[in-house]
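pasting for ref
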Amino acid sequence: MNKLNEDGMTMIEVLAGIAVAAIFSASIYGVFISGLSLYEKTSSLGQARDETDYIATMIMNELYTQKPDFVRPFEADGRSGVMLTRFSEKEVENYLIEQPDTSDDTYIYFEQNRIVFDTITAEEKAAGSPAAGDSPDLVLTGDSIVLQPAESFIRMKCRTACPEGLPTGIIELNLSILPANSRVAEEMDPIQLRSDFGY
């Protein structure tokens, strides 16, 4: 009488085991990849929002630090933004108060996919005729964001056409951004950050 060796596995059992392992591996791989993709998206969006908040804070700080006497719209050579004008200190002599005809002008404007801060002082004006953008004080470009220049703006909020300058009013800021990570940016619409600042 021959006895069958029952210690091993049949070919069908081996194939069935491989098929079950392949199904589990595929589902685990899918969960891992979707989790990794979600982490990448969340991380990119968090960095983009942080950087956008930083840019908005820098603009607001400049506005409140300057304490402008007038704000004017600014447009030149494809650049658009606002010009903050702060008059020079008044001179008092023998009870007469005179306002010198000089001022410091700070320009905040968009140029392509960056935001430029440029201050031209009264002394610089007296020494020559500097133009906005000749020697910017600060240029903000995003490491983790890409500004969408067509939809981003900083401007005065006026019901009709803005006059030459206003001593008080509201400045509108709209930052349209996409994360710098191209894989994440391809799957989403630009994020809009909208703020209004009083001056």
